[in-house]
Amino acid sequence: MIDRLLKTLLQKRLSQMPAVALLGPRQCGKTTLAKSCGGIYLDIEQEKGRTHLDLGWEGFVTGNELIILDEAQTFPEVFQKLRGAIDEERGRNGRFLLLGSVSPALMLRVSESLAGRLGILELTPLLLPEIGFERLDDLWLTGGYPDGGIISSQDFPNWENDYLRLMAERDLPTWGLKASPRMTERLLKMTAALDAQPLNLSQLGQSLGISHPTVRSYLDFLEGAYLLRSLPPFHANIRKRLIKAPRLYWRDTGLLHSLMGVKTFEQLLDQPWVGASWEGFVIEQIISLYGTLGKDPEYYYFRTSDGHEIDLIVEFANERIGIEIKCTSSPSLQDFRRLKKTAEMCDCAKTYLISRTSDPLLNESGGSVNLPGFLRMIMEVSK
Predict the structure, then answer these.
(1) Is 380's pLDDT higher than 80?
(2) Would you say residue 26 has pLDDT above 90?
(3) pLDDT for res 107
(4) What Å distances lie between residue 370 and 25, 150, 286, 354, 361, CA to CA?
(5) Cα torsion at 265, 270, 276, 281 (round to 10°)?
(6) Do 325 and 279 contact (CB within 8 A), yes or no?
(7) Distance, C-alpha 331 to centroid of its chain
(8) Structural domains of the chain in order of their starting residue, each with its CATH number
(9) Confidence class of residue 112 from pLDDT cuts 50, 70 and 90?
(10) Do 49 and 332 touch, CB atoms closer than 8 A?
């Protein structure tokens, strides 16, 4: 079994809180990670799991074992019961671990019943430090879902195609998405074609034959199901027109590539959008690693109408980092100079140009680095 970096933080939160919610997309490894913590596991999406929970409730809440409740958002009745059990013994921590695949649905229940009683963590598909930095290209191509090809390469992209079809036909409608499966499949393909671009809701809605508010609600649902990520623009007080629409990214490049018909790494490199895929992959690895290590900065992108841009701004309380991403093994000095000039518009304390270089060059204010090197820096600083 692959060791998940989030386990350390998960165990820490369980020691501090009566309950913890572990959120993340279906099939990303939540159940495996939860079971590795020990305790009693119940899948309450299934009727037999709910029956077991109901009949064994008194024994569960008075016992000393961790109770793991999978797909908790599917059984709303459990939240009031959890609140009562927690309030009876507020001094006991590490009692309940809730797993969920739909963030808004679960968090609505949490805010209504368990506010102040529960810690919240997000598990992503496998990250580069978890599978080994030498497997960079494998992870970029197939994405990080454990069953999606990163462990057994022959599963890609058939697993991803099946996953997305089941999401469109079964899971998303069950969770409340009102679009038809055919409409959802069209939306998934269109967002894949628009990956890493500023979002134009009117244009997207027009292409799908639905209204601006409707397409926004559908996209919100896909974000809540951990398929998409919306990166907001950074607003700087400068004398230039800024692009103000959010950028939309597919969070897992394996799912993106399956939607775009890519099956091999050689095919990926031949695509005109390979740079956008690399950009989204790097951004997701950075954001996910920060979250896994318990860091919670703000994230933005920056772009002026005349082409000055920073792909990712990471903003902490006392520091702002500007990151430009290039799908090249030989970034130019001109690339870095342009980045430095743009970063000054946003008051970035440090600037990094992340590429596929094998010759990093770093100093105290940033520099040129590859993705493994940058992720190692995040991990070192977070110790």
Answers:
(1) yes
(2) yes
(3) 73
(4) 28, 21, 12, 5, 10
(5) 10
(6) yes
(7) 28
(8) 6-122 (3.40.50.300), 128-381 (1.10.10.10)
(9) confident
(10) no
